[in-house]
Amino acid sequence: MCPISTKKGYQQKPNSIILFLTTMGRSPCCEKARTNKGAWTKEEDERLIAYIKAHGEGCWRSLPKEAGLLRCGKSCRLRWINYLRPGLKRGNFTDEEDEQIIKMHSSLGNKYMFSNSNIINFTFLN
């Protein structure tokens, strides 16, 4: 193989670069070739809900395998948080929520969203 030249005339073999890139960082959470992509089915939603009701929210990386889902852990976490979580409110803010947001913003500024837990069950998805 032809060596790769870098700055100041230093040369490095391509194999050592590939080895370095494959050993650095965290290992992937799932096998990308065996995961479902796209829309979730009703059966997948039911499996995720049943597993979290029985075991609670825990390690999202291991959840898909333990729950029998062919999904990535990140996909399961986002599905739960944005769509399936109990008590999740969707749609527009009520007048009371609007007033609370305006009041908090006037007293705390833009940081109120990060410091207040009064509006935790709301998602901005319609």
Structural commentary:
This protein has 126 residues and is mostly helical. 47% of the residues lie in helices and 3% in strands. The protein has helices at 14-23, 42-55, 63-67, 73-84, 95-108, 112-115, and strands at residues 4-5, 11-12. Strands 1-2 form a two-stranded antiparallel sheet. The protein is elongated and about 50 Å long. It starts with a strand and ends in an 11-residue tail after the last helix.
Task: Give structural attributes.
single chain; 126 residues; mainly alpha; Arc Repressor Mutant, subunit A; two-stranded antiparallel ribbon
CATH topology of the domain at 32-84: Arc Repressor Mutant, subunit A
Q: Determine the fraction of residues in helical runs and give it as a percent range.
A: 40-55%
**Overall geometry:** elongated
Structural class: mainly alpha
Q: Output the CATH class name of the domain at 32-84.
A: Mainly Alpha
Characterize the main sheet.
2 strands, antiparallel
CATH superfamily of the domain at 32-84: Homeodomain-like
Sequence of secondary-structure elements? EEHHHHHH
Query: Strand arrangement, largest sheet?
Result: 1-2
Mean of residue pLDDT values = 76
Number of beta-strand segments: 2
The Rg value, from CA coordinates, equals 23 Å
- Spans of at least 5 consecutive residues whose pLDDT stays below 50 are none
Amount of beta strand:
under 5%
What's the tally of helices?
A: 6
CATH architecture of the domain at 32-84: Orthogonal Bundle
The rounded distance between the terminal residues' Cα atoms is 55 Å
Pfam family, one: Myb_DNA-binding
InterPro entries: Homeodomain-like_sf (IPR009057), Myb_dom (IPR017930), Myb_TF_plants (IPR015495), SANT/Myb (IPR001005)
Keywords: DNA-binding, Nucleus, Repeat, Transcription, Transcription regulation
Domain Myb-like: 32-84
